Amino acid sequence: MNSQYQITHEVFLNCACLVIGSGPGGLTTAKKLVEAGKDVILIEEGDFIKTQDSQKFKNYKKINSLWRNGGITTSFGKTSVLYAEGNAVGGGAEINSGIMQKVSSQILESWVQNNDIKKFTKDEFDGYYEKVLRLINPTEPKPHASSHILLDAANKLGWKSEVLKIAYDQNGNKNSVSKIMLDDLLQKGLRLFSNIKAQKIKYKNGKALEVECLSLEQHHVTIKFENLFLAAGAIYSPFLLLKSGIKKSVGKTLQFHPTLKVCALFDHKINDNPATVPGAAITEFMPDIRIGGSVFTKGFLGMFLSEDWKKRSWMFNLSDYCGIYYAMIKPEGKARIFKLPFLPDPVVFVSLEKKDKELLQKALDELTKAVFAAGAKFVYPSIFGHEGFTKYENVSISNFKNLNLMTIHAFSSLPMGENDFCPVDSFGKLKGFKNLMVCDSSIIPSAPGTNPQATIMALVERNMDFFLQRQTS
Amino acid sequence: MIKKLVTSISQAICYNQSIICPDSGADFVFSQIENSPLHIKLGLKVVAVLFLFLSLLYGLGQPFWAYNSKYRQIVFIEFFESLFKTTRMFVSFIRSMSLIYICDNNLS
């Protein structure tokens, strides 16, 4: 049965449940609804490219096909953070490294206390994590040379490290959520519309009534539903609410994992398995700081060196001897999403707190220490104008404006809980609405300090169980 | 005009690395600008216009793409890059995208 549709003219559609967005949150939502026998439409702004096909794409082709805004979007603020979002069926899971990690017990407890989340226990949530991990079935990849850099460094410094579980099979094929779930859901009757973008939610008296959409070819699509599930990601979900005139506490608490990088030069070849993420991390400083390795190709090295080409270009032809490593922090600072007049896209302003700057300082220090411990001969940090290091020395970031930060983790723009600052209740329902659920990384109460995919899926599994229980009772 | 400018900058940057950037590479770089959110795209275009204006002064009335030597183009790019953080990011963006394209296509 073919349940994938392209819009070729103006249409009106009806369904019991409309899911906006097909990332880990949206697909988990659709799965729960379809399995409960509901009539579900899933819409996705991006294209539908099967994971097995996109894995064969070269990076430059992936950038336009799978990533929003042609790759990277810049935020504004004293220290800007470049962020990247997935924009295809499968969402962020199509572009991420698929690292599956659980949030620590302490953070889960802080979420319950700070946000006043009802009926949320660690043991119960662990059950949801296990369910997600059984579905994704992540594996521990055989560490390649650039992973050994991290493991060796941790070993020499007496730090904790781990081989990560990632959403790849033993043959190196990605187990994205679309690959795992979509065929089955389409067989069971899910109606999938790719290349259409939700423009506005119409509502009355606390009830969402219909969503106006626009197809890639600019055809108008109106979809009526009984229940709406918003899963367009941590930036576009609140942005759609703001565009629709729903503003209370919306988009004021966005968080990223600001990530800084270094490029390290070794005296031996370290890129024996390019284009896959080094499946190891230094976990000594988690949850505040995680140190890991970036996906590495010569093109990505070029991107790093381009930040300060005049100083760094000499490394370009030594790509076999280079690795890019990162330290990501769990920040306190929050970003804000704005809907400005006449602009069709969200504008994001980031604000780093004093503690975040201290953490970034520490993150760079420990990261530099790690790569030198593993034998690096030269290191450039992602700071414009920096001369680089030939040996470990105490790092001082003198001007945060020159720091180049990036992230692919965004969350907490619509945090869940009963406290006033939470626009979503303890079960994922948008407060003030009878039939609007938020089902993506927006609802994560605060920065988890880990890759968020497993947490998004576990939270959505939990919240959808409550939704379906309410429906049957 | 902006496309012609981006193409010229992209080709000059690649020339500096002894790489020939094909037109398809420059098309890719321009498509990245076109795919940016409107406020960023407008910002990039404003910077491109500033680039063109300053290059006209530097080139005594000649537009950047009409410079008679790649060396001169590269010196101007470096000058422009050193002006502000925004101009640096503009050149860095074009350079990054050019390098991604040429490396992916084994042209480097």
Detail the topology: elements first, then pairings:
The complex is a heterodimer of chains A (473) and B (108).
Chain A: E1 4-5, E2 11-14, E3 17-20, H1 24-35, E4 40-44, H2 51-54, H3 59-66, E5 67-74, E6 81-86, H4 105-115, H5 122-136, H6 145-157, E7 161-163, H7 177-187, E8 191-194, E9 196-204, E10 207-215, E11 220-224, E12 227-230, H8 233-243, E13 255-256, E14 259-265, E15 280-282, E16 289-293, H9 298-306, H10 309-312, E17 322-329, E18 335-338, E19 347-350, H11 354-373, E20 378-381, E21 405-407, E22 410-411, E23 436-438, H12 453-472
Parallel strand pairs in A: 1-8, 2-11, 3-4, 3-12, 4-8, 6-21, 12-23
Antiparallel strand pairs in A: 5-6, 7-15, 9-10, 10-11, 13-22, 14-17, 14-20, 15-16, 16-17, 18-19
Helix pairs in contact in A: 1-7, 1-12, 5-12, 6-11
Chain B: H1 2-16, H2 23-34, H3 38-58, H4 70-81, H5 85-104
Helix pairs in contact in B: 1-2, 1-4, 1-5, 2-5
The most extensive interface between chains reads: A-B, 31 and 29 residues
Category from helices, strands and their pairing of chain A: alpha/beta
Q: What's the main sheet of chain A like?
A: 6 strands, parallel
Number of helices of chain A: 12
- Measured distance between first and last alpha carbons of chain A: 32 Å
The helix fraction of chain B, in percent, is over 70%
- Please work out how many helical segments of chain B DSSP would assign: 5
- In this structure, how is the largest beta sheet of chain B organized? none
Percent strand of chain A equals 15-25%
Shape estimate of chain A: globular
- Number of beta strands of chain A: 23
Low-confidence stretches of chain B: none
List low-confidence stretches of chain A: none
Task: Name the beta content range of chain B.
Answer: under 5%
- Estimate the helix proportion of chain A, in percent: 25-40%
Gross geometry of chain B: globular
